[in-house]
Design goal:
42% helix; amino-acid biosynthesis; eight-stranded parallel sheet; binds glutamine; 12% strand; six-stranded parallel sheet; 5-methyltetrahydropteroyltriglutamate--homocysteine methyltransferase; alpha/beta; globular; binds zinc ion; 777 residues; methyltransferase; single chain
Length: 777
């Protein structure tokens, strides 16, 4: 018997119903009951969709109001003591306190919906900071990080989960419950006082056992335990602990499906096959090469669940290829085969089949969560009743795939030719840094501790309203242009008045740092409703990178040249780098990411050269997402950093010595990839450092980072105006590790989420700090 199931479903709602209900609740417009009713309605709808597609179980436990990991913190009663819960709070009050902190303040790094490791999440110095957020493995989903310490105790609070099992059962659905497994749960947490997270396992396991028994009694047919950490390089004591843990869990008597995903099992493959569980799920998309060995090694009485449909991307599945891959597996697994998406469908939009913004042809190439359910149905039927039984479905899929492969929108000989024509040293600047530095110093004549900003200035309601009106067609092109020029002129005048040294135009005309470029490049499409949850109620709508990338016309030159015409000071051109554009898009699966990245790099390179020839002497190429692209396993990291670095340098290296290239990074620890950052050979890097109190910079000092650096001297996430003396203190700290002649002075990141008054006040203090340090020299 072949069965189908999913590891999890998106919960935000096809029309983002959960997002809007959450935000209404937080504004006090609806109560807990109303919010819970919206959630229950969504669950019922999602389960019905799963059953309509013939899944053998519905997925229960994956529906989190905010985040599935914080749900486990509440489930196992291990909220950190610092929140001071008394037991008088309702479960929802506890949830939102953990998720959002106590003193709430709208905070978002870049306003684009991406949050990044260490992003403060609604907190201030006096309130209770929320749990930290960080990225869920290599996805753009952010989970709330459990906080453990030596005093952590667990207690089981299963009621909400049991209620959901009952809810699904009352609707007549067979239930598989989804949980994060105990080892992954501890691994994903953070030990506050250096406590040993693994040391908590023995205290935690009895509660998992207890929970499993309760779920069984409640009628759950299976429990899926997600242990994606089996795809990581694990310390030996962690992998050893699996056996002990799962022997205990096995005793609870409910069939367990151990779920792994995102990465090959490699050295953990035999361990995963041997654990005392009833079934094993493997990621057949990220690790197709392991399917055969898993099929051979997994004892025959166990269920093998093959993640055959890509849960991370939006392309329609090549069903013929899947069937070919599955046939040898079926032969080895008489009967016990389950088919599933590779991972939870949380990472893809609900549907793209009718998206109003996508053209008819493109839509046929794509599959959202609902379409993926259907693909599972077709695969199951083809394997059970023969391909004839789904001949029409298979033919439709084949035709769509053929049209994608043959499309001149996808494969462009001119792009391939341009890449091939690129000289092998196109990723090298003509001269070494020291030489360029001298030329640039002579050209720009900047003072010591030069001041600048990261690019964006406040995206005011007026700017947003103008753009919305222009998009609706209510504002003519010329009028919109004029409105943006007025904003740019304002930004330039403010910066001149403040006495900043290197100016920016302020990015008023940009909605989002990736979308703005994607919309002007060939090879990208944008859905109207392809939302994916980023964290809490935050969603992103990643561009669909479907074809060879080319730049039909300059993208930023007119704005930059206009801004430069308003001032005698250097105006920094502002671009998003190829790795960040790649990283924040749904990327094509029919060629290596490295090649797609190189195509984007070529387009950015052309833009950099056009800026240069139009009088822009300084160009910043932002790469905040460079760190995020690192493969989960150490083994793949060097190769990634090689091609990613080369892509950046291709973009940056087409200019003369006198053109100064900046890059900017934020949201992450960079110390472990410093050699790769240095290899980018940007003349100046600005990085987020203020929240680590310049600690991050120590790594740059120790590594003897060779080029110029602007360590962020204040946090842009808060409207608080930083004092000059605080910034002076940070700069002195910086000057202790990096020679002062290589230091720049700038905020941590762009200012688009801020308002003008605090922005001006903060920059005024920042310029004062730079002047103080200059005077000391
Ligand atoms: N130039 C961009 C800005 O200032 C950089 C944003 C980012 O790093 N996330 O908004
Ligand atoms: Zn930034």
């Amino acid at each position: 018997m072949i069965k189908t199931h999913i590891l999890g479903y998106p919960r935000i709602g096809a029309q983002r119903e959960l997002k809007f209900a959450l935000e209404r609740h937080w504004r006090g417009e609806i109560g807990q009951q109303e919010l819970e009713a919206v959630a229950a309605g969504l669950r019922a709808r999602h389960w019905a969709e799963q059953r309509a597609a013939g899944l053998d179980f519905v997925s229960v436990g994956d529906f989190a109001l905010y985040d599935q990991v914080v749900d486990h913190v509440l489930l196992f009663g291990c909220a950190p003591a610092r929140f001071g819960f008394t037991g008088a709070e309702t479960p929802l009050e506890r949830l939102f306190t953990l998720a959002r902190g106590v003193a709430t303040e709208a905070q978002d790094a870049c306003g684009c919906g991406h949050a990044h490791s260490g992003d403060a999440n609604g907190s201030d110095a006096h309130g209770k900071p929320a749990l930290e957020m960080t990225k869920w493995f290599d996805t753009n989903y952010h989970y709330l990080v459990p906080e453990f310490d030596a005093a952590t105790r667990f207690t089981l609070a299963p009621q909400r989960l049991l209620d959901q099992v009952a809810e699904a059962r009352a609707l007549g659905h067979p239930v598989k419950v989804t949980l994060v497994g105990p080892l992954s749960f501890l691994w994903l947490g953070k030990a506050k006082d250096g406590a040993d997270r693994l040391g908590l396992l023995d205290a935690l396991l009895p509660h998992y056992c207890d929970l499993l028994a309760r779920l069984k009694a409640a009628g759950a047919e299976w429990v899926q335990l997600d242990e994606p950490i089996l795809g990581l390089d694990l310390p030996g004591d962690w992998s050893l602990a699996f056996e002990r843990a799962y022997h205990l869990l096995h005793g609870a008597g409910v069939p367990l499906l151990l779920a792994t995903y995102f990465s090959p099992l490699q050295e953990h493959l035999s361990l995963a096959c041997k654990l005392p569980v009833a079934g094993l799920h493997v990621d057949g998309v990220r690790a197709p090469e392991e399917l055969r060995s898993v099929a051979d090694w997994l004892p025959p009485h166990k269920v093998l669940s093959v993640g055959i449909v890509d849960g991370r991307n939006i392309w329609r599945t090549d069903l013929d290829a899947c069937l070919a891959r599955l046939r040898p597996v079926i032969d080895r697994r008489a009967g016990n085969l389950w088919l599933a998406p590779s991972c939870s469908l949380l990472h893809v939009p609900f549907t793209l089949a009718h998206d109003a913004a996508l053209d008819a042809q493109l839509r046929t190439w794509l599959a959202g969560a609902r379409e993926k359910l259907d693909e599972l149905r077709i695969l199951k039927q083809a394997l059970t009743d023969g391909e004839q039984s789904v001949a029409a479905d298979l033919a439709t899929a084949r035709a769509a795939l053929a049209s994608r492969h043959a499309s001149p929108r996808v494969s462009r000989p001119d792009v391939a030719a341009a890449l091939a024509a690129l000289p092998s040293d196109a990723d090298r600047r003509a001269s070494p840094f020291a030489q360029r530095q001298a030329v640039q110093q002579a050209r720009f004549g900047l003072p010591a501790y030069p001041t600048t900003t990261i690019g964006s200035f406040p995206q005011t309601p007026a700017i947003r309203a103008a753009r919305a009106a222009w998009r609706r067609g209510d504002l003519a092109d010329a009028a919109y242009d004029q409105a943006m020029r007025t904003e740019i002129a304002h930004a330039v005048h403010v910066q001149e008045a403040l006495g900043l040294d290197v100016l920016v135009h302020g990015e008023a005309e940009r909605n989002d740092m990736v979308e703005y470029f994607g919309e002007q490049l060939d090879g990208f499409a944008f859905s109207a409703n392809g939302w994916v949850q980023s964290y809490g109620s935050r969603c992103v709508k990643p561009p669909v990178l479907y074809g060879d990338v080319a730049r039909p016309a300059p993208m930023t030159v007119a704005w930059a040249a206009y801004a430069q015409s308003l001032t005698r000071r250097p105006m920094k051109g502002m671009l998003t780098g190829p790795v960040t554009i790649l990283q924040w898009s749904f990327v094509r699966d029919d060629q290596p990411r490295a090649l797609t990245c190189a195509q984007i790099a070529l387009a950015i390179r052309a833009e950099v050269r056009d800026l240069e020839s139009n009088g822009i002497g300084i160009v910043q190429i932002d790469e905040p997402a460079l760190r995020e692209g690192l493969p989960l396993r150490r083994a793949g990291r060097d190769a990634y950093l090689d091609w990613a670095g080369r892509a950046f340098r291709i973009a940056a290296s087409g200019v003369g010595d006198g053109t100064q290239i900046h890059t900017h990074m934020c949201y992450a620890e960079f110390n472990d990839i410093l050699p790769a950052i240095a290899a980018l050979d940007a003349d100046v890097i600005t990085i987020e450092t203020s929240r680590s109190d310049m600690e991050l910079l120590a790594g740059f000092g120790a590594f003897a980072y060779p080029n110029e650096i602007g360590p962020g001297v204040y946090d842009i996430h808060s409207p608080r105006v930083p004092a000059t003396r605080d910034m002076v203190r940070l700069l002195r700290k910086a000057a202790a590790v990096v020679p002062a002649e290589r230091l720049w002075v700038n905020p941590d990141c762009g200012l688009k989420t801020r308002a003008w008054p605090e922005t001006e006040a903060a920059l005024r203090n920042m310029v004062a700090a730079a002047r103080l340090l200059r005077a000391e020299r």
